[in-house]
Amino acid sequence: MPCRVSIVLLVAFTGLLVFLHCPTSSAQGADFTSKVVRVIDGDTIEVVHNGVPVRILLRGIDCPEKGQPYGDKAKQFTSERTSGKLVTVKVKEIDKYGRRAADVVLPDGAVLNRELLKAGLAWWYRQYSKDKNLEVLEKEAKAAKRGLWADPNPVPPWCWRKPQKGREC
């Protein structure tokens, strides 16, 4: 019987540790300021938070991929505004892979996600965002033919990554 109690306590203790380590809804909404140590692509950066590298996806947008038209420009845009700088990360959700989708506030107070849309270097990612403000910014860039919208038929990154069979992209 003591062995069974020990196993139950061990399982309970392990569960508690997992619970405390896992991001919760309150952690998701917690803002933090960190230094950007790496720009992976236009819509993905890496910061160091509490001594640990953390990958941040820019919420609500999708930039062109590496090798795709405007992919390098989007990465350069993000690099110029963030590399080595302190940014405020406003985590909105954590996906099933543990990636944090966030709004990233630049030192001047501008939101990087929105700045990429304004510059025509990102799409509003409708599938994952219902933020109508992002929709407006995309429409304005499109109307002005800024960035990727200068191309008469820009290919969204989700179509570039994985062509859709039987579905128009």
Can you summarize this structure?
The chain is α+β, with helices and mostly antiparallel strands and 169 residues long.
Explain the overall architecture.
With 169 residues, the protein is α+β, with helices and mostly antiparallel strands. The protein has one domain (27-161): OB fold (Dihydrolipoamide Acetyltransferase, E2P) (Beta Barrel). Helices cover 36% and strands 25% of the residues. It has a five-stranded mixed barrel. A two-stranded antiparallel sheet has the order 4-7. Strand 2 (44-49) and strand 3 (52-58) form a beta hairpin.
List the keywords:
6 helices; OB fold (Dihydrolipoamide Acetyltransferase, E2P); 25% strand; alpha+beta; 169 residues; 36% helix; 5-stranded mixed β-barrel; 7 strands
Average pLDDT confidence is: 85
Which class in CATH terms?
Mainly Beta
General shape: globular
CATH topology label: OB fold (Dihydrolipoamide Acetyltransferase, E2P)
Q: Within the largest sheet, what's the order of strands?
A: 1-2-3-6-5
Number of domains: 1
Helix content: 25-40%
Q: What is the CA-atom radius of gyration, in angstroms?
A: 20 Å
- Secondary-structure element string: HHEEEEHEEHEHH
Identify low-pLDDT runs.
8-27
CATH architecture: Beta Barrel
Helix/strand class: alpha+beta
The oligomeric state is single chain
Biggest pleated sheet = 5 strands, mixed, barrel
Number of strands: 7
- Beta-strand percentage? 25-35%
Give the N-terminus to C-terminus distance in angstroms: 62 Å
Q: What's the tally of helices? A: 6
